[in-house]
Amino acid sequence: MVTLYSSPSTNCSGVFSSYSNSSIGFYNYHNNFPISSRKFGSHKISLQINAIRMQDGAVVAQPSKTQDETPLKKLKDGILSKEQKHTFDFDSNKDKSTVSITVVGASGDLAKKKIFPALFALYYEGCLPEHFTIFGYARSKMTDDELRNMVSKTLTCRIDKRENCGEKMEQFLERCFYHSGQYDSQENFAELDKKLKEHEAGRFSNRLFYLSIPPNIFINAVRCASLSASSAHGWTRVIVEKPFGRDSESSAALTGALKQYLKEDQIFRIDHYLGKELVENLSVLRFSNLIFEPLWSRQYIRNVQFIFSEDFGTEGRGGYFDHYGIIRDIMQNHLLQILALFAMETPVSLDAEDIRNEKVKVLRSMRPLQLDDVIVGQYKSHTKGGVNYPGYTDDKTVPKDSLTPTFAAAALFIDNARWDGVPFLMKAGKALHTRSAEIRVQFRHVPGNLYNKNFGSDLDQATNELVIRVQPDEAIYLKINNKVPGLGMRLDRSNLNLLYSARYSKEIPDAYERLLLDAIEGERRLFIRSDELDAAWSLFTPVLKDLEHKKIVPESYPYGSRGPIGAHYLAARYKVRWGDLA
């Protein structure tokens, strides 16, 4: 017998996207483990059901035709996927399943500023399971109360839902505990395992480990967690933060080492940009609006730009950055992932594997990046308004002779039928004039435009442009040509603007909230698969090696400027003007 609950709409999972009197909601742990019920409403329904995974990845329920068809028999018949073939008792799952979340590296900045606040936001929204426990694990000596005090300083409640904020914080902090240990000690992880079991209290346990630690100790932590602190019966998943290596070879070595202790479906490689609202909206914008999909090709699009800029430098934290540089830190992962989502063909379904398959096809179709199509820069000190801003090599954690780029621009091409000849331009940099991340789609000029004379010789002034602003002030706007009211024929460019803050009163969730929830639910759509990672590194590794072996000196640009002049020449080579400079 299965206990189900009718549920209203919720933002916690796509499964609960709408409400109807006949809707049935599941709280679905996708992976190798049971499907359990979860109460999102007050109306309780009891049915005997068979669970069926549909083509789009959803799980639906239908009444059983016979009373003696058990879930185990259905599993053996192959209705559910191979990785889900476990015997389970539907009746007991609601009360007996639990999720234990361990933040490895709990004393670090990422954990304090992003992971714990995201977990609290999920709890505040009612998106976490009924039974859950959060453990911080790090080398620092700390008590449970000290961890709670540290975490409490970074927790905030939703602007649009302030009720019971203090009470919710107290309830959340009561679920937070701490264990001190070394990252390479199986004994310390075995002690953690003992504590986890005490809090799991005999329930069916699932465990999530978030590795918020430097990449050089990933493998030790994974080995110890896998051998000494894995779930005995439920699923065990590990979230791995970038960077995933420095090049193809080191990335492959890291993947190979992880797979000694974990299966691919246990590894969740996180790129937090994929969890941003406007990035996730890319496929919705394209595939659910008829006006865009027919235009999404070389026939109508002249170029596509992916722009990332920060208005601050390394600020005393250049040691890590100097080892990787802006190409590895931003372009090879954040911007390339967005490009793959933008350019992919229509997937068979919204299932994670179908989407990731299409992204991999895009990456494998891309032309190898050449050194001639890359510009690198490094910011220098600059005085503005009486304030002196230090250069990159003025940072005490950076070598004085460092050639690590803090800015890069590149032109990439996808050699397939849809995008042949369309330049995809990337630009990323630190210490620039503004902080932003956006996608700019510049359409072709109108053939035989009757109003060309109104724009003069600069036809770019008449170019339609679709802008998707990822951050800050999330927005989607389309630049069109419009007649200025009056007796004359004067044209200007106007924006059809969807500004999220004006249209939606609800606060936009942080990317880490979405990704943590997906990891708990086993949804892999926004995480990076190993072959996807291999394809991404194969594009950038040759040019990264050329830059380092040939000791290419980056072009200097002043702190707070728009970047090196070379980026403009690169765009001009392909008859493109950077959209953010217009």
Describe the structure.
This is Glucose-6-phosphate 1-dehydrogenase. Pathway: Carbohydrate degradation; pentose phosphate pathway; D-ribulose 5-phosphate from D-glucose 6-phosphate (oxidative stage): step 1/3. The protein has 582 residues and is α/β, with parallel strands linked by helices. The protein folds into two domains: 146 residues, NAD(P)-binding Rossmann-like Domain (Rossmann fold), CATH 3.40.50; 279 residues, Dihydrodipicolinate Reductase, domain 2. It contains 16 helices and 23 strands. The strands form six sheets. Strands 22-21-20-19-13-18-17-14-23 form a nine-stranded mixed sheet, with helices on both faces. It has a six-stranded parallel sheet with strand order 9-8-7-10-11-12, with helices on both faces. Helix 10 crosses helix 11. The chain is globular. The N terminus is likely disordered.
List the helices and strands and how they pair.
Blueprint: E1 2-5, E2 27-28, E3 35-36, E4 44-47, E5 49-53, E6 59-63, H1 71-76, H2 90-96, E7 97-104, H3 109-124, E8 132-138, H4 144-152, H5 165-173, E9 176-180, H6 186-200, E10 204-211, H7 218-228, E11 236-241, H8 248-258, E12 267-270, H9 277-287, E13 301-309, H10 318-343, H11 352-365, E14 374-380, E15 382-384, E16 387-389, E17 407-412, E18 424-429, E19 436-443, H12 452-455, E20 465-471, E21 475-483, E22 491-499, H13 500-503, H14 511-521, H15 530-549, E23 555-558, H16 566-573
Helix pairs in contact: 3-14, 6-7, 8-15, 10-11, 10-15, 11-15
